[in-house]
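Reviewer 2 asked us to include a model.

Predict the structure of this chain.
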Amino acid sequence: MNAEKEENMETLYLAKWESRFWAWLIDILLVGFFSRGFFWDFEFINIAGFGISGLLMFAYWTLFEGYNGQSVGKMALGLKVTDRNGRKIDFGVAALESCGKAFILPLDCLIGWLAMPNSKLRLFNRISNTIVIKTKYEEPEGVRYVKEKE
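Predicted model (structure tokens):
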């Protein structure tokens, strides 16, 4: 690749598994907390079921990630779901990507880790052509941020 092409390329930083785990945990705890008021008698943290919890998580991730690529957990950790080029995904892609983590997360991760080692992809990331990236919080051109002295 020539230097000019390389200079014009955007750099995307794939999110670490541990960051993705913490974002996921924030999301399930948040949705679990709010759903307790509506559903008294079900065990929310059932990560391998197609029950109410799976449907709630599926709807949550599809709506948030389809709207702006970020669930609350991803916002908190500076992560974002994008297409492979770093562009926004739509609701259909978000729904496909969310299926794995809402309904079969252990299998989704295991297949990703074994079949695509070092790619930082779950199976349903591969199927939906999505990646999870670290968002950039850079100073805009012509602006400099200065911390106030305490």
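The helical segments are 3-8, 17-35, 52-68, 72-77, 91-103, 105-115, 123-128. The longest strand covers residues 79-83. We have added this to the supplementary material.
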